[in-house]
């Protein structure tokens, strides 16, 4: 499978009619594809709030997506918290939709996405290419960012911790890792 281009990712989201199908659950397309750091075989990630009822949310996913190849859904725990996750494929691209009862903007995956977006805005194309290369070497997105930015420890925790770091500190971190900053720290 080839690495999708940004227009192909956008076309897939449109073809799936994802945002309309998940209306009422505050859906957000996140992860490596909208950041253009995905590799061949990466999945399209959508996170959203499941609202007060995980069972109602699971039923909605089953009704909306069960006709797609390889569809399955389940209730599980993510970071120790009850959640629902659904998997399927569209045109050979894996899609993963997950939700928890709390607001999307508080999900770790959404926070990671926002931090990674900011880091890419600062580090530019060189950082993006370095992250893609690290992912092609077998790392997941958070571990790839952590490696490129010379962060020690677990990539998941390290990227999450950057959410509370000032824009100036993020700029310093990117510069110290050897990536010239392309935007002001408050961009």
Oligomer: single chain
- Percent helix, as a range, is 40-55%
C-alpha termini separation: 35 Å
Low-confidence stretches: none
Q: What class do helices, strands and sheet pairing give?
A: alpha+beta
Cross-sheet strand order for the largest sheet: 1-2-5-4-3
Percent of residues in beta strands? 15-25%
Summarize the structure.
This protein has helices at 6-16, 18-21, 32-35, 54-65, 108-136, 141-148, 155-161, 167-176; strands at 28-30, 44-49, 72-78, 81-90, 93-100.
Please provide a written account of the structure.
- This protein has helices at 6-16, 18-21, 32-35, 54-65, 108-136, 141-148, 155-161, 167-176, and strands at residues 28-30, 44-49, 72-78, 81-90, 93-100.
- The protein has 187 residues and is an alpha+beta fold.
- The chain has a five-stranded mixed sheet with strand order 1-2-5-4-3, with helices on both faces.
- Helix 5 packs parallel to helix 8.
List the helices and strands and how they pair.
Layout: H1 6-16, H2 18-21, E1 28-30, H3 32-35, E2 44-49, H4 54-65, E3 72-78, E4 81-90, E5 93-100, H5 108-136, H6 141-148, H7 155-161, H8 167-176
Parallel strand pairs: 2-5
Antiparallel strand pairs: 1-2, 3-4, 4-5
Helix pairs in contact: 5-6, 5-8, 6-7
């Amino acid at each position: 499978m080839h690495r999708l281009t940004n227009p192909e990712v956008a076309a897939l989201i449109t073809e799936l009619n994802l945002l309309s199908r998940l209306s009422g659950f505050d859906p957000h397309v996140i992860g490596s594809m909208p950041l253009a750091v995905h590799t061949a075989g990466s999945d399209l990630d959508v996170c959203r709030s499941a609202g007060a009822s995980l069972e109602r949310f699971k039923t909605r996913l089953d009704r909306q997506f069960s006709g797609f190849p390889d569809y399955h859904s389940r209730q599980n725990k993510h970071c120790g918290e009850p959640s629902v996750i659904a998997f399927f494929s569209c045109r050979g691209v894996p899609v993963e939709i997950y939700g928890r009862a709390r607001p999307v903007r508080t999900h770790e995956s959404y926070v990671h996405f926002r931090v990674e977006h900011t880091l890419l805005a600062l580090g530019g194309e060189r950082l993006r290419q370095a992250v893609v290369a690290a992912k092609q070497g077998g790392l997941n997105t958070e571990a790839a960012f952590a490696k490129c930015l010379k962060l020690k420890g677990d990539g998941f925790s390290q990227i999450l911790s950057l959410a509370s770091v000032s824009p100036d500190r993020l700029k310093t971190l990117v510069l110290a890792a050897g990536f010239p900053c392309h935007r002001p720290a408050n961009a």
